[in-house]
Design a protein that fits this description.
Blueprint: H1 2-6, H2 9-34, H3 36-43, E1 50-51, E2 60-61, H4 65-68, H5 71-78, H6 97-108
Parallel strand pairs: 1-2
Helix pairs in contact: 3-6, 5-6
Bound molecules: heme C.
Residues 41, 44-46, 48-50, 60, 62, 65, 68-69, 74, 78, 84, 89-91, 93, 103, 107 line the site of heme C (HEC).
């Protein structure tokens, strides 16, 4: 661990990570602005079980879910490819790939 921390190329790696993060943030913000993900959330009846900031719904509030998972994880989870505490999601996502990406990006932005 210490050997890695002292390695010089670590700094380069860190700025590369920061750079890609800076690129990723405006993309997520754009998806949020259009309100697509939020719309998909309502259209796909996620609200039967979940509520979210600005969306009334079921008991399982998804506020702050973006602190726990990123968009890629949420996409996998909604397709039942990933597990949460050893369990797959209740419902397999029924919309299109674009809708899946939009709703996952929106949820990941809830921090
Ligand atoms: C039939 C009820 C039901 C429906 C409909 C449903 N979910 Fe869930 N969802 C759950 C349950 C149960 C969990 C397990 C976590 C929990 O108990 O809070 C969960 C967990 C999640 C999590 C992880 C939450 C966390 O805190 O880590 C996300 C993200 C999520 N659901 C998104 C969605 C989306 C998006 C939709 C609509 C496409 C949806 N869910 C529809 C029941 C449902």
């Amino acid at each position: 661990m210490t050997a890695i921390a002292h390695h010089c190329s670590n700094r380069t790696l860190r700025s590369a990570l920061l750079f890609s993060f800076a690129l990723a943030v405006p993309a997520a913000a754009a998806a949020e602005d259009k309100g697509d993900g939020k719309q998909v959330f309502q259209d796909q009846k996620c609200t039967k079980c979940h509520s979210a900031p600005g969306v009334k719904g079921g008991k399982k509030d998804l506020a702050g879910v973006g602190k726990r998972h990123d968009g890629a994880w949420i996409e996998g989870y909604l397709q039942k490819k990933k597990e949460l505490d050893g369990k797959k999601h209740k419902k397999k996502f029924g919309g299109s790939d674009a809708e899946l990406k939009a709703v996952a990006a929106w949820l990941a932005s809830l921090k």
